[in-house]
Amino acid sequence: MIDETDMQHLRRCVALAEEALEAGDEPFGSVLVGADGTVLAEDHNRVAGGDSTRHPEFALARWAAEHLTPEQRAAATVYTSGEHCPMCAAAHGWVGLGRIVYASSAAQFVGWLEEFGTPPPPVRPLPIREVVPGLEVEGPVPGLDQQVRELHRRKYAA
Ligand SMILES: [Zn+2]
């Protein structure tokens, strides 16, 4: 169940994705929120420099591993503009983070790339739940997913 607080964090993720786009990067943004609602960390894609593993969800998982206890990680929520790729879902699972809420799904992203005539990513976009069973996962969110689509259209559609 996605409430207004979730929506606020998701809107921040979309804003971070737009920041990434405007910085010449791919439009993905994520926010890590503690059990008490505090925003602990946020990031956006940083792959433009040539390291394609620099996804925000991966950065947040590493931040959590360094700064949070296992209990704090399990109680934290990761919000993200686009569903985790398998690499980031695995990092999330290994670090033991909690709930994930995404604005748009990996399946939507792949469909949009196809629509824009852009080659698919080299890594298969498995749903998070196939990579990390038992996790609480919510999304996509109607309306916000279309805002994310528009960012991808600006990035990928020729
Ligand atoms: Zn990723």
TrEMBL record:
Parts forming coiled coils: none
Ranges of residues in domain CMP/dCMP-type deaminase: 4-113
SUPFAM superfamilies reported in the protein's UniProt record: Cytidine deaminase-like
InterPro entries recorded: CMP_dCMP_dom, Cytidine_deaminase-like
Organism superkingdom: Bacteria
Pfam families recorded: dCMP_cyt_deam_1 (PF00383)
Position of the signal peptide: none
Name of the protein in question: Nucleoside deaminase
Species annotation: Halomonas kalidii
